[in-house]
User: Fold these one by one.
Assistant:
Number 1:
Amino acid sequence: MIASAALISEPLIVAGDWKAEWRAAFRTAGDLLEALNLGAYAEQLDVDPEQSFPLRVPRAFVRRMRKGDPNDPLLLQVLARQIENHRVDGFVHDPVGDAEAKRTPGVLHKYAGRALLIVTGSCAVHCRYCFRRHFPYAEQSVTPAQWDAALLYLQAQDDVEEILLSGGDPLSLDTPKLAALCQRLRALPQLKRLRIHTRLPVVLPARVDAELIRFLHSLPWNLSIVVHCNHGQEIDAETKAAFTRLRSSGAILLNQTVLLRGINDTVAAQRGLSEALFDAGVLPYYLHQLDPVAGAAHFSVTDDAAVALVHSLRTQLPGYLVPRLVREVAGEPNKTVLA
């Protein structure tokens, strides 16, 4: 019998110490599988211990995985496997045209009215479908030494009324560094909205601490936080509490999901996710077709299947709980809506 999610032996960590939790993350497939009573499944799961995109999974996220289940939908998102090394036509290193959108180090400008800052290459979890798994962060992250160039570019863009903080994960930065960056953004008189894209409140809820909330509450712009959750099982009491704290800052919480074969490509999974998100105070926003990044082809779902899934969701859920099915196409002036 497959056991339910259970307490996994882990280093002693002071409650709320997110940096200690970060350092204690699983870094090898062997350790992760042993913690889940899946050591005997390593060969069946086609594990790849030698990855240029190394495994990293916080223990808070692993606690939500089902012990003894090799098909756990959270495990399959993060387990490095040999199949990632297979070359598949159309799956490339820069699937969404980030290189062409670069304006200065750390600044990507694709769409009218908004620009994106790559503030760090770090993330607490390495999701195997990540569209930036091959991104040259050493060259294209905005560091303090490069803030002047980034700000000069943005100041010259009168139509840029929204800045997106991205990465990696912007909440990987400690709060004083985030505050220093946002203090510089106050020099942009045209800026009206700030958006933060992050997975940390889901995989490492302790990151959403009192210091972060005070900082977010102090921001002068309308704030939206787009979290990234792919399956209802990712939302537990810790996650809900983190979302509640984020909402207390005045931020609007939205979710984006990646459609992943064998993980969340059923009506039941998507319905369960939308309902769990709304119960936790988060509105479903985007359901992304997989960006065709090299190493992730095994997660791909056909457009026909994706559209049929969304049509079925519409028969079961109110419209505000049905995310927009979209694809990002390199060079296009907006996301392409599929359904």
Number 2:
Amino acid sequence: MWLATLIAATIALAAWRARSLSRSGAVAALAVGTTALSASWGWGLYLVIWFASASALSRLGRARKVERMAGVVEKGDRRDVWQVVANGGVFLIGLLIVIGWPGLAPIVAPGAAAALAAAGADTWSTEIGTLVGAPPWSLRLRERVPPGTSGAVSLPGSIAGVLGAMLLALVAVACLVIPGSQLLPVAVGGVVGAWTDTLVGAWLQSRRWCPRCGQDTEQRVHQCGTPTERRGGFGLLSNDGVNLLCTIVGAGSALCLSLLFASRA
């Protein structure tokens, strides 16, 4: 336990110094990392690879992405405690079950792995989609919208999301946290979770409007300094809440598929 805490603290500190995590995000990441390493070295390695890939993609072409998403997204790529909880909370709960009730590990593991695969697929889709290609297409408005707009899709982003889910499922198998027979349920769970994020982001996520700039945004106070007005969606459902739903659906989908495959074996 102490060794797991020490390793997790070292990684969290390095991520904070690299500005991949805020101070609160580093504390939350310490808790998730310690739990993952306590479950097994494989789970710890899976988490580290997931975080490293997400951070690398966030930094890829940062200047261009900041320019393209100016005034749209609420938060940057320095993850705070709520972003860590949204992306890793379901994964954490799964690992706590694995540690507390080892007999349930074969059942719970695909869901825990898929929760991160879904969060990763969403990150891959967002980061690649905002970096390359034309502005995305809003599912709700059925028109082009600025990059970074929730509920919008692009071909590069969609392809990246599917590839991200598949690669993270392969990483889970390589880290020995799931057997090869669970590769497909975890990959599908990752894709379904990411799609859920897009659909919920399009219609249910809180939408705001800057009356001064005439721009849709997720920011409560726009970059121009003007307080924004809510224009639709559920007021309490932020992007972090949508990301949490993404991981819940991803985990649930993988669990259902793995149980279905097991019943037919």
Number 3:
Amino acid sequence: MIVLSALGAASLAAGCGDDGDGSGGDVTTGIAPSTQLADVTTEQLASACPRLKAGFDRVFQADKLIRAVCTLSGVATTETTAECVTYRDQGIQQASMAGSEEMEGLGDIEFTCDDAAENDHVECTGTVGQLETCFNDTLDRVEAMFNQFSCDDAATLDEEAFDDFGGMLGEPPASCEAVGCPGESPFAPDDSETGP
């Protein structure tokens, strides 16, 4: 679903935020919500895509991802709040350095409008409004999951508590079922659990 599988990969690649600002799910496409996705024109799609990208980029900012991943890693691998804070801050500093290997996985997390003219949406059965709801719910879900832990949890959680974290991120919100897009569409149901 969208690029949530890439997000899981980035978490592993970064190897290492609590405080979110809740700026995710308020994206609109500028197209009438009742419009069938199959009826969206190439021009409308090209105009809507930058709006979706702007919302995506607010949630997937590199500094926010680095802080979140370093916090989660600190919570999983340390035993006290103080140790976690130190671990997190060191991870953020390392990941923020130019050319840092920890930054490499974050490059996979992107939303581009390069393919906005393609007609993948014509096979979708839902409406623009349903797609907007799915998109915003997905952004909200990512933010909530990254912000649900802080270094105060280090004393009570260990690595096992995060075993299924990537799977939870990859699971689309229930609202996405209504969008009804097939196959390779970024809004298609996530089939990652049934194959590689």
Number 4:
Amino acid sequence: MQVRIKRVYTEPDVHDGLRVLVDRLWPRGLSRSRARIDLWLREIAPTTELRKWFGHDPSRWDEFQRRYRLELSHNTEQVNSLVQELGKGPVTLLYGSKDVSHNEAVVLEGFLRKSLRS
């Protein structure tokens, strides 16, 4: 499995493979042509309630991860869709947050790796 994580505002490159936006909201100030997104899986993103509760507060990170993994475990259609894409080649999960360590793409990538090992 070749999966990368990248901030959506970072310039695309040839090694990205399929570029998948995993945010529920479109990134501010970014045109669709500049983003070069191949697939937008907004339903795989944390629910609006969870996203607002977390608010990118690092003190809530552990609980956010737990809650988001629970949401992912009930979102088999979207997760399976992404797993199928991973079987075809490299995938880059794109997120909009400024925080590179505390965002949904980090949790999703770990969830995918664990799911594929099982």
